Amino acid sequence: MTTTERVRIANSHIYPGATGAYELAAPLGAEAREVVVEFSDGVMAYGRLSALPGPRRRLEVDDHTTAKGAYIPPKVWILQNTGADGAGFLVREHGEPAQSPHAHRRRMSLRR
User: Fold this and answer.
1) How far apart are CA 103 and CA 92, in angstroms?
2) What does the DSSP 8-state code read for residue 101?
3) What's the mean pLDDT when you consider all of the chain?
4) How far apart are CA 19 and CA 29, in angstroms?
5) pTM of the model
6) CB neighbours (10 Å) of residue 18?
7) pLDDT by residue (tens digit) across 15-43?
8) Where residue 99 falls among pLDDT bands split at 50, 70, 90?
9) Average pLDDT of 74-99?
């Protein structure tokens, strides 16, 4: 895997109210960047992260399989930055369905 930027989720699933942290090499622009989405159970999925107006970001997560074997289809989430440095976030809501050409392009369910 070549992507080193990560979005860490403090749970095994993403849901409104979940929290997490960004590990980004540079500030985000409007264009989506490839990231690895890492869940607390060690599962990882590919995703794309882009900036929205204000302290919000849009996260597209490709389909993946949880550590317990549940299939999760591609989803989009709206994240609200938290903390003075903006390195943390709170999942606010579902975003518009993933229309990315990357969706279903690849699947990854890796363990640490």
Assistant:
1) 22
2) T
3) 85
4) 22
5) 0.82
6) 19
7) 999 999 999 888 887 789 999 999 999 99
8) low
9) 87
3-state secondary structure of 22: strand
3-state secondary structure of 69: coil
> What is the C-alpha separation between 32 and 110, in angstroms, rounded?
23
Q: Return all residues near 95 (Cβ < 8 A) that are at least 6 apart.
A: 58, 59, 60, 76, 77, 78
DSSP string, 40-67: TTS-EEEEEEEEETTTEEEEEE--EE-T
Residue 64, amino acid: H
**Which are the contacts of 50, defined by CB distance < 8 A and separation ≥ 6?**
28, 29, 30, 31, 32, 33, 57, 58
Helix (H) or strand (E) holding 72: strand 71-72
Alpha carbon 42 to chain centroid distance?
A: 14
- Classify residue 8 as exposed, middle or buried by CB count within 10 Å of its CB (0-12, 13-18, 19+): middle
